[in-house]
Amino acid sequence: MVEEVGEGLSDPVAKKGEKRADIQLNSFGFYTNGSLEVELSLLRLSLQETEDKFPKVGFSLSRVRSGSVRSYSSRNSHECPLERNSSNFLVLFLINIKDLQVQVRKYGEQKLFISPGLLPEAPSQSGPPKPDPTGTPKDNHVIHPSPKKMSAVKEDQAKLTVPQVSGDKALPAGHRHSSDGQPQSQPPTRGPSGKEKDLVLGLGHLNDSYNFSFHIVIGSRAEEGQYSLNFHNCYNTIPGQEQPFDLTVMIREKNPEGFLSAAEIPLFKLYLIMSACFLAAGIFWVSVLCKNTYSVFKIHWLMAALAFTKSVSLLFHSINYYFINSQGHPIEGLAVMHYITHLLKGALLFITIALIGSGWAFVKYMLSDKEKKIFGIVIPLQVLANVAYIVIESREEGASDYGLWKEILFLVDLICCGAILFPVVWSIRHLQDASGTDGKVAVNLAKLKLFRHYYVMVICYIYFTRIIAILLRVAVPFQWQWLYQLLVESSTLAFFVLTGYKFQPAGDNPYLQLPQQEDEEDVQMEQVMTDSGFREGLSKVNKTASGRELL
């Protein structure tokens, strides 16, 4: 399965020619005093003069409830979400390119502190960060974009350079430029009724491109949750009339404890503990193999290699989360090692399950043609699945091919899970057919019982790690979604332990006694046949000798 990491810092990758009407930029779980910084450094639209009275380009911020989907996923594809007063949206940022301003509209009762500009480098640790009264970012402020959720939309950017606002460009009333050339906005005011008026941000304009920035701070525990930030271009909602546009968005998300999303903060400790558990299981398994060398097969050592590879993969995964949480980005070398060990672990897992299911080394030493074809399918699919996993981990969520690779990973993983069941089913059918024909009913029934147990184990493993885990992730609150990873890893550990128990190289293991019993029976039968043949030959020799004496 796949795990999405909510990272904090990264370098943007510039591409252009985006035509999507809706772009899912990121999803992040915030605690109190968590902050979201967004800088639209480049927006270039291929639009002609229009008479639209309502802005059709902008951002939406919504809270993703447990068990729900993205707010605009079920709407009519021809509708513009920016023109609807939907209760799914908390905040809309409407970009008005005519008046060079961004209208900020809030819906419902909320305590989200929205201010223009970006936060300072080191926000205050005691309470919510306070924006600069003038709304101006500090001089020489270095923007640290987000590496995974940062939403530099990978098909849509033209340059890495951040455009600066021309100093002599006129802005609407109430807006002015700061000393560093960026647009400023006045803080929101309150009307006669005491209700806060809509905030208006300044929109910079240079060479047919637009830019602005803002930041949001979660002000209370009631506002904690999983937030989704999306970009909308309603000019492209009509099929066949899409106009390409360039977009560069840099996002930095941060919680009080680090750069990880709320559900991902416990994962560093979780993966470290599970890595130690798999390492202990591998060491114990090797000790068992060393004590019973007379009944150890090659697949036993393959099972040991799988346990150690799983442990190392989880260790690198844990270290990656540690550096992401503390520094905002992973260490490149460690990330590569994680991908390599993840690839080996995935391939070894499915190969081991398929080999055990086919009875290789335990019951037979040769694979049939059908079983060889299964391995010829599973191994390339596992390579493809790991390529998809690496692509998803390195892509931004707003990339156009992000969803495609995610679907490929899910489909390939499903095919592999189904493919590894075929050898087990074939072995069960073979034993059922052989139980009443070769005279070894008791032996074949014992084999059949063990294969059925293993089949149930594989089904339960797939069911818990693929179905139950996903349902749990959808059902639990945002801060408890790490239970999904806990269920997956604990189910995998339980499956490894039960498989080792069933196939342990012990003298009293009926699975390993079966081939030996068959061999003993075959040897006894050969001895009987040899003895009877020797007696027949001896009687013939005696008869021949007696005949000669008579003559």
UniProtKB/TrEMBL annotation:
| Subcellular location(s) per record | Golgi apparatus membrane
InterPro entries, from UniProt?
GOST_TM (IPR053937), GPR107/GPR108-like (IPR009637)
Keywords from the named record: Golgi apparatus, Membrane, Signal, Transmembrane, Transmembrane helix
Example of a GO cellular component annotation carried by this entry: Golgi membrane
Q: Where is this region: Disordered?
A: 118-198
Start and end residues of each GOST seven transmembrane domain: 266-510
Q: How does it sit in the membrane?
A: Multi-pass membrane protein
Its transmembrane ranges are 270-289, 301-323, 343-362, 374-392, 404-426, 454-476, 482-501
UniProt xrefs under Pfam families: GOST_TM
**Protein name (database record):** G protein-coupled receptor 108
Q: Which gene encodes it?
A: Gpr108
